[in-house]
Amino acid sequence: MSFDNQYIMSVISLVIAAVLGGIIGFERAGKNHDAGLRTHILVCLGSATVMVLGRYIMNDYDIDIARLGAQVISGIGFLGVGCIIVTGDRVKGLTTAAGLWATACLGLVIGMGYYLVAITVVALMLLAVLGLRPIAMKFQEKAYDMTISVTMSSRGAIADLFSCLSGLGIETASVRINQVPDDDTIRVIAESYSKKAVAKSDLIALISAVEGVKTVVFL
Length: 219
Fold this sequence. Notes:
By secondary structure, this protein is α+β, with helices and mostly antiparallel strands. It has 2 domains: 5-139, no CATH class; 144-218, 2-Layer Sandwich (Alpha-Beta Plaits). The chain is built from 9 helices and 6 strands; from the N terminus they run ααααββαααβαββαβ. The protein has helices spanning 5-29, 37-61, 66-75, 77-83, 94-111, 115-131, 133-139, 158-167, 200-208, and strands at residues 85-87, 90-92, 144-152, 170-179, 186-194, 213-218. The protein has a 4-stranded antiparallel β-sheet, covered by helices on one side. Helix 2 runs antiparallel to helix 3. The radius of gyration is 25 Å and the shape is elongated. 23% of the residues are buried.
């Protein structure tokens, strides 16, 4: 392949894709998300590569390249699904998943050579993720997650346990109840969250005061 104008433009597209994808990924990496800097660079670079390839195919064979971009947009979903975690009635990772999808679309734009549009997209993405975050936090109370393991003398005390948690403002997302082997006790593992901070020592003391509770452990 000769170093013609098309090749030079392709290299510029790929470099810009790596840089702009990295900018989005850097923000995610700073918040300790699994899909961070390298993931976003690869997603943006990969989708840009598809469109660069499409431009070569279009020039050499005069074939419609729209299908290549469509496959990227639909196929990126498998990465997004891996970022979404569902715990009870709570869902995490939606912003990261949406960011990956948008980064893939960004790569398509860069791969076609529309650099000003790509820069505008990055600016708007950063505005949505960073600039609007303080506003979103005002409308969304912070939830403190916790997983509590409680051993009890009987199943009859379980209702009292959840009444205690509810009275403390602690909501329960999911519950697992197991019979302890070679013992008469019941182990209750509750994945819960509270809209206000609760000291673990105080919480242990209050739960331990429930009749039938033997041990309380935070997992």
